[in-house]
Amino acid sequence: MSVQYQITGSAATEIAASIESGVRSGDLAPGRTLPPVRKLAADLGVAPGTVASAYRRLRERGVVETGGRAGTFVRQRSAFTPTGTLKVPSGVLDLVSGEPDPALLPDLASLLPRVEVSPGNYRDGGPCPDLLDLARDRFAADGVRGDLTVTSGALDAFERGLAARLEPGDTVAVEEPTWSNGRDLLLSAGYQVAPVAIDGDGPLPDELDAALAAGAKAFILTSRGQNPTGAAVSAERAAALREVLARRPGVFVIEDDHWAELSQVPLHFVADAAERWMFVRSVSKPYGPNLRCALVAADPETKARIQGRMQIGHGWVSRILQHFVIAAWTDEAVEAQVAHAGRVYAERQGALREALAAHGIDVWGRSGLNVWVPVADETAAVVALRDAGYAVAPGRAYSFHGHQGIRVSTSRLDPKLAAAVADAVAQASGPAAPPI
Questions:
Q1: What is the mean pLDDT of each run of 10 residues along the chain (436 residues)?
Q2: d(CA 41, CA 50)
Q3: What are the HTH gntR-type domain coordinates in residue numbering (predicted)?
Q4: Number of C-beta neighbours around residue 210 at 10 A
Q5: For residue 30, what pLDDT is reported?
Q6: Dihedrals φ, ψ of 282, to 5°?
Q7: pTM here?
Q8: Bridge-based pairing state of the strands 218-222 and 171-176
Q9: How far apart are CA 179 and CA 222, in angstroms?
Q10: CB burial of residue 163 (10 Å; 0-12, 13-18, 19+)
C-alpha cells in the first residue's frame, strides 16, 4: 500500500470512511490490496472485529472486494473510484471501448425542426403520451405487453425497479460474465450478487434455478447483444427460463433489451413469466448515448411504484429528450440509417467470429458490439495485443469467478482487419479453454 496514505480510525465507521476517502482521492488506487485484518487492527490499536466490520461495510457498498488468498482490495470500479476518459495509445486500434460507432449514429440535429422545445411546466410533466403510444406498438410487435413509463436510461430503470421491489442486502442473480456497469451499480447500492453462468443462448436454466433456490430475490438478464459476450437468448432457452421462473413466485425479473432496433435476431421474451417484472429498452445504442431515455414495460404495481417515486423526486425525463425519440422513431431516413447500422455491426462481429473460428477459437457473439475470448492469462494477453497494436479489455471486470478472458469490441472494426486481429488474438490467448 502507498506510503503516502495511512488508514485511520478507531471505530468501524471511521475506518471505512478513511478507506473510502483514500479511494475517492485516488490515493488508494483500483486493485490496491488493503492490509490484512489483523495487521491493520494492530496498527490502529483496535480489535480485529472492528476492522472486519469496516471491510464488510465497504464490500456491501461495492468499494472493495475479497479475493480469497488475494485478500481485500479496492474494486476496479466503484461509486467512489475516480474515472476519466479512456485513452488508447497512438497507433493502437481501439477494440476496447465497446461504444456505438459515431459514424453509424443518426444526426440528431436534423430532427430538431420536428422536436417540441417549449419550456413546459411542472403540471404537465411525465411520460409523453405520444411516445408511450409508439412504444406500445413497438413492444407489442415483439410480444411485450405491460404498463409503460420512461426512465433516464437503462441503469436508471434498473436502480428504480430494484428499489421498488428489494431491500439493500437482498441478492440479485446476474449473468456470468456480466455487464460490469450493472454489477457495479448493484454493489454500490448494497445488493448482494449471485452469478448465473451463460452460454451463447443466454443464462443456463439450472444455474438460474440454483441461484433462486439459494435465495436470490431478483434476476437480471440481457435479451440480445449481451455485454461482454454478444450472446442472445434463443427461443428454446427462453422457454426453459420461463419454466424456471414460473416455479419461483415472488422473484422480480428485469430484462434488458438495449440492442433492440439494431438486432438481426428476434426477441424471445422472458420477463413476464414472473408476476413481478420489468422490460427495459434504452435508445442509446441506436440513436446515441446522449439521448438518455429508456422505455419500460412492467407489471402494473412495479410501474406505479417506479413512476410514483420519480414524481416526488426529480419528476420526469426531459420532455425535449422524449420528443427527440418520437422524432427518431417516426423519421423514415433515421429508421433506414438504424437498420443499416444494425447490418454493419453484425457484419463486423461476424467477420471476427469467423476469423477466430479459423484458429479453433469459438466465441458466442451473434449480436451486439463485443465478443468474449477465453485466454490462459488475460493480463499477458492484453499486454501482447497492445504490443501488437490492438487495445482490448481484460475480463476481470466482467467475471465473478476470475475466469480468464478478454472482451474484444467490434463496434468500429473494419471487417478487412478481422483476420489480422484474429491472428494476434490467437497468438496472445494461449492454450484453448472452455468459455466458462
A1: 77 92 88 91 94 88 74 76 68 91 94 86 85 97 96 94 93 93 84 93 98 97 96 98 95 97 97 97 94 96 92 85 95 96 97 96 93 91 94 85 86 96 91 51
A2: 8
A3: 9-77
A4: 16
A5: 83
A6: -85, 165
A7: 0.87
A8: parallel
A9: 9
A10: middle
Pairing of strands 405-409, 370-374: antiparallel
The C-alpha atoms of residue 202 and residue 212 are separated, in whole angstroms, by 17
Please say whether the beta carbons of 214 and 87 come within 8 A.
Answer: no
Buried b (16+ CB within 10 A) or exposed e, 114-123: ebeeeeeeee
Burial 36-49 (b: 16+ CB within 10 A, else e): ebeebbeebebeee
